[in-house]
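pasting for ref
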Amino acid sequence: MDKRVGNYSFIIGVILAIVLGVVSLGSATPWLASLLVVLGLVVGFLNVTGKETKEFLLVAIVLIIAAAMGGASATLGGVQYIGAYLSGIFTQVLAFVVPATVVVALKDIWALGQLN
């Protein structure tokens, strides 16, 4: 059951990130962005386990570093016609991935501490 909740949270999170990146939903946007963060937490707790941890952390860290250091959102924003949408989607995907990354990293640190 937990695995299905994590899977559904991931699917809903990705769809919601795309929708929020493309369409402004007025006063519902901040609430839905908060839901995106909560879904990221759920994915971190329930969906990423064991063997997936290292690969997930590597991919997530590359995504976060590209966003912060590479200015990916600004670069994507410069693409003609669809740049604003790409930048919005990227920003919302980060709002979803960063909480999951923090949870998975903390779980991994905890597991490493338990080995001693």
